[in-house]
What does this fold into?
Amino acid sequence: MLRRPVRDEVLLARADAWLASGASASEPRLAATVMLVRDAPTGPEVYVQRRVATMAFAPSMVVFPGGRVDPADAVLDPATPGIADLAAHFGVDPAAAAPFAAAAVREVEEECGVRLSVEALRGRGHWVTPAFEPRRYDTWILAAGMPDGQHARETSGESDGGGWARAADLLDGASERRLRMMPPQVWALEALAAFADTVSFLADRPRIARVVPVLEREPDGTLVLRTELP
It folds into this structure.
């Protein structure tokens, strides 16, 4: 179990206001996000984006390419190669996994111009946005190697910056408050930082369970997110 203080000032204000209001949590929407990784001389790198400050959800946050599952994503055939393995890893049937896989492939192409196959996707985690957020997502976190001969670039108006970075550098930026990141991204980057290359990272098959961080107030008034990890 992790207990991490809410240090981001924007999140802290929103969490404090939500607790004081006694409001109910909104229903989370289905979503998928992809850790696009490649090898570099100093170790694995991951492609990240900084969301524009005007976004309704996670403004100015550093994220992986991704987004919500759209109705059109439901048309992907559950028999598509790669879906059965993803479904087994996430503990669902192929029909339930197909829309997440379709959304992941579509969002990566829309947001950074990279075309992935469903077979390239690997499961990493399953996180749900905390209850205090007005917009909530039930998100599959996936990973994929950067395909040869392609180049990632910003192709979406949802970000104002993006590029390749080492997990350790991103984590340092978050620790020093130079970068804003949500708990799932921090958790995913900590996992990536433990691997020497993308082959071993993508071959890893972590246990996946639905993670829902819970907001709590400590006796001294500090707000923390309690997270039960698989």
About this structure: Residues 44 and 197 are 5 Å apart (CA to CA). The helical segments are 9-21, 83-90, 94-112, 167-175, 183-192, 198-203. Residues 2-48+64-156+182-227 form a domain with the Nucleoside Triphosphate Pyrophosphohydrolase fold (CATH 3.90.79).
